[in-house]
Amino acid sequence: MKHTIILIAGSLLAATWIRGADSAPAQLPKPLTAATAVRLVERGALLIEDFEAPEMNSKIWRLHHRNPDRTTMRQQGGRLELTASGFVQMNGFWGLGGVKHKDLVMVGEMDVRSTGAPPHRLAFHLCGGDGARSPDNWVEILMVDLGTTARFLAGISSPVGFKPLKNLTVELPHPPGEGFLCRIELNGDTNMADLAVKAADGWKRVCEPVELPLRTVHAELKFYGNHGARPAIPTEVSSRAWFDNVRIYPRSQSHHVGINLVRADGGEIWERPGGGWPPIIADAAGKSRKITDLKVELRTEDGAQLIASAVSSNFGFYLLPLKEAPWDVYPAAAQIVVLLDGKPLGKPLRIERNGCEGLYPDDVYQVVIE
Asked: CB-based burial of residue 236 (10 Å sphere; 0-12 exposed, 13-18 middle, 19+ buried)?
């Protein structure tokens, strides 16, 4: 009898342990009260160069100096400054480490001032030629100073049999002390390159879009010879030019901004009790909520325009498209807002723009939630 009682007692104890495990409340994560900080964890831009360093960055560029007796190139005053005199060939900065990426935009500022004839050409150049990895196909925006105006032309090297470039030109006012913003956009789906210069009343195409098949890309910034026929009576030709704030980044039409919600220590904001789905969070009152009750918004700098919003069950990671963004070049300044039940968790978080720093397509940010 004694032996039988022990067995029964053991069975009751085991049953009690099982019921206790089944009925134990799920472990809730720490309540979410406010979004407090935003930090960049991966930059989407492929090249950012503001020329603020005193010398050339040899990891990004190499010097291409065909006429060292007639040209100079140096970084000073936060710009790449170049001079040329007489008749010159190709002289400038040649980008290293071609990136295997072709759905992108190259943007930068440039200016040239010339005296004498024929004036020098300044070239803003997007190239695929990096030896064995990619053939030397390229496009470029060429700038020529004509005094009160500046002329912009297109250059292209494309495979045999491709449609030839219709070499149109754009002529714009050239006020003293002002340069121009140039943009080369390469559509990865169509391989069409669009070349444009920013004028007072908007972007001006230098030519019709041209087909440009590339495997890799890099930038080149250079003098590229003289423009026009040599005069019968030679004149002293000299030019001063500069480049600044050059960047290459993925096209916003096809690349999102990534947002990851984390704790201050980088840990997760969610739990999955028993492997359940979707993950759960806890609101400020400690109540269990689904992670899909959260929404993340990307807005313009002043918060007035909603760019994109997303709800995600995927572990606190959100992809926000930029197709509706008003920005014609990047980087941009923006706001990130995290909402629960349509109400902001804390204040909007700002991504500031400062020179070449700011929001780019394909960036990934962590947003800290306390």
From this structure: exposed
